[in-house]
Design brief:
two-stranded antiparallel ribbon; disordered N terminus
Amino acid sequence: MSRASRVAVALLCTAFAAGGCEPTIPVRDCTGCSYDFADTIPPDILVFHWPTAALPVRFYADPRGAMPTLVSHGLAAWEAQFLYREFSWVAASDSTQADVIVQWSGSVPPDVPPDPGPPVAACGGQTVYPSWAIGTSPGRAVRVSLGALGGYTQAQVAACLQRVAMHELGHAIGLLKHSPSSLDIMNQTPTVDSPSSADRNTAEILYHTTATAVPPPR
C-alpha cells in the first residue's frame, strides 16, 4: 500500500469515530424486559407472527373518516420497532386481497384533532383471527374493528382511537396477549401514545420465535 493510500485510510477511520473503523451497533435500551405474547388454547399454545414469505403484510383500511391515517400511523410505529425489518406492511386498496382488514364498528366518528388532555377510554377495539389460527372467524384475513363510545367529546374519541388503533394493530401483527404494565401500548387499556421499550422488545422476541400458526398461501 502506498503512503498516500495509508493516509487516506487513516483519514477515513478518523472520520468515522475516535474509537476506530468498526461500525456502531444500535443501542436497544430494554435488555431483558418483555411480556408474554402467546395465547394459550388448551392443550396448545398459539404463537403467531407474519412469516417472511407473507411480507409485506397487506392491510386494508376503511376509507371513511380518520381510519386510513390511524392505520398508517399505527403500522409505521410498529414497523419502526424492528431492527432488521422482520415486519413490513403495505396498504391494500381491495379488502378481498388483504391479509388484515381494519373497519369501523358502528357509525364513523368525525375526523377531528385529538384531545391533548388526560387519556380516557372513549373508544373500543377488537381483533379477530380467522379459522387457520384460532378458529373464531371464517375467511383468510385478520379483522380489526374500531368504534367510538358514547358520553365523550369528539376530540376525546379521536385521541382514544389513536391509542386503541395502535394497540389493536399490535394484536394483528402477533402480540396476542396484553401487557400487565400501563406504560405499554399493549396494556388492556392503553394510555400511552406509542410502543414502549418493552413493547418493542416483546415484538422482536416474537418475530424470532417459531410460530405455531401460519397463514395460508396467498
